[in-house]
Amino acid sequence: MNRQAALNQYMYALKLGQKYYRECVVRGKYPYQQTLNDVFNENLAAAKVNIGLVDIPMEQIVGTTTNARGNAFAGNFMPLLHEDTEFGSKWIALCAAHLEAGGISDPIICYEYMGRFYVTEGNKRVSVLKSYDAPSIPGNVTRIIPTWSEDEAVQLYYEFMPFYDLSGLYDVTFSCRGSYAKLQARLGFEPDHVWTKEERSEFLYGFRRFKEAFEKLNTEKLHITPGDALLVWLQMNPVEDLQSTDLHKSLTAAWPDVRIFANGSAIAVSTEPQAEEKPGLTRILGIGRPSHLNVAFVHALDPAQSSWTAAHESGRKQLESAMGDRISVKTYICEQEDPYATMERAVEEGAQVLFATTPPLIAACRQIAARYPQVKVLNCSVSMPYSGVRTYYGRMYEAKFITGAIAGAMADGDRIGYVANYPIIGTIASINAFTLGARMIRPKAKILLRWSCLPGNPVHSLMEDGVSVVSNREAATEDPYWAWEWGTYKVESNGNLLPLSSPVWNWGKFYEGVVQTIFDGGWNMLNAKEAQAINYWWGMSSGVIDVTLNPNLPEGTRQLAQILRHGLVSGAIDPFRAKLVDQNGEIRNDGERSFVAEEVMNMDWLLSSVEGSIPNFDELLPVSQELVRLLGLKRNEIQPTPEEVIL
Question: Which of 110, 241, 317, 324 has the most neighbouring CB atoms within 10 Å?
C-alpha cells in the first residue's frame, strides 16, 4: 500500500521536476540545482560556524554543496530521472519509509550562506518532503559568514544573525535594514530578550497563517517579503491577532499600506489647496459632493493646558464660523482615554471627517482608517507613508526666511542665535532658510544653533555668547507670548528682550481649505494614485503660515518683511534657489534650480554659515524622544522599543 502511494508520489514529483526543467529551458535559465560554488567565493567568507540542529524552512533550501547529483534533480529539488532507475527506486523507498514511519526525522547536513541552505547530505529527504509541501526539515547547519561590506544585503544579514541568536528562527526575512529589531519590539520583547520555545512556536503558527494570507493577496507580485508585510500589518493590529481567524480580512484592510511600502513608501505632497473640480456630469449631478459634513476634532491634550491644542481649537472655531450650518462639529479630548476608543466614539457619533491634531495620535488614526474606510482621517504630522490617513503640516521655513532677514537687519553684529526644537522633518529647512534670510541682509552672518530638546537653557547659552538677536521657537497662535519661548527678539544692553517678529500658524485656513475641497469634490481628485500616501504641506500662499511683526519695528524693516512675504506668496522668491554650500563644503545647489518639496522637507544638512550640529537621538531629553521617533530625520535608524509601534 505504502509502496504504491510512494510510487504515485514519485510520478507526481517527476512531473513537477519536468515542468520546472522545461520552463527554465524556455527562459534560458539553468534548470538544475544551484551549487554553493555558484554563489559563494571562499575568499569572501569571514568565518564558518557550526550552529547545530536547525528547523530549516523548506523554501530556503535552494541548492546543494556540490554538483555530485548532476542532473538527477531539477532546480526545485524535484526528480528528473524515471522511476525505474536506481535513483528513482531509492527515492520511492525513502518515500514509502516516510509514510510508514510517520515522517522523515533524520537531520540533513548542509551549509547556510546569506539565509539560503545548500545540502551536503540528504537531497532525497529534502525532495520527498518538498513534494508533500512540508514547511521545514531538521538539519545540522554550518553557517558561512560573509565578510562585512557596504553591500546592503550583507548589512541586512549582519542584523539577522543577532536576531537568530535570540529567536532561533530563519522563517521570517526582511528587505529593509532595521526590520529585525522592529519585529522584536513589536512582539513586545526587549532588545536582548531570548525567545522561549513556546514563544517561538506560537509566533511560527501565526506567521505561517499570515504568510498564506499574504501569498493569496499578493496577486500583484509585490517585491517584498511576508515579513515586510507583517511589520506593516503590526502597525495597525495587536500581535495577538496573529492567532485570529480574520487574518485575511485584516491584511486586506492593511493592503494599501503594504502596497505603499512595496513602492518605496511613496508620498504625494500637496503644496497648495486643491482646485475645485472641473465642470462635468459628476459636478452637475452632485455625485460624491456632500451637502453637509460631520467633522470631529480629536486632541491629545486640553487646550487650557496646551498652546498647541489651543491653536487648533482656534482653527476649529474659525472653520465653524466660515462654514456655518454646512457642517456639524464635535471636539474630543483623549487625555484620559485611549485614543482609538475616543476616535471610534467619534465615528459612532457620525463623524465623516476626523482631524487628529498631534503626531502621536497617528497609530489610532491608522486603526480607525483601516476599520472605517468611509471616514476621511487626517493627522497633524508630516511625511507619513500611510494610505488611509492623510497628514498635514506647514512650510514653516518660509516664515523663518522672513524672520531671518529681520534678525539680520536688527542684529548689532554678525552673530545671531537660533533655538531649534526637535531634529525632525522640516526643522533643518527652517534653520537654513533663516540663515539665508539673515545673510541676505548681513552677508557675513553666522548662525549659532542651539536645541531646546537638549539639556541646558539654550537662550541663556546664546546670551552668554554675546548674541544680540535670538530666534526661538515659532508661536502656536497668532497672539504669541513674546520673549524667551516664542519668536525672534533682540537682547538689549540692559538685558531686556525686545520682540521683533514671530512665525505663526493659522490652522483655521487649513481646515477651511480641506473641508471646502471635500465639498468641491477635490478630495478624490487628489487621491488619483492608489499606491501613494498624501501629505498636505501648505505655506504662506494658503494663509496657513504667516509672520507677526512688532508694530514698532523700523519702517524699512517692516517694508522689507512685507516685500519678502509678497514674493513668497506669489512664488517670485524661492529661498533655496541659490548657491548653497553645507558644513562639509559640499555644494548642495548651484543656484540654477529649485528644490522639489520632498528635498526641502527631508533636508538633513546645515549650511556652512551655521555653527552647530544636528543632535543624535540618544543625546535628546527623554521627553523629546517620542516625537523624534515619529518624525525624526533618521527615524528608521532609531532602536525600536516594545512601546514604539508606529514606523
Answer: 110
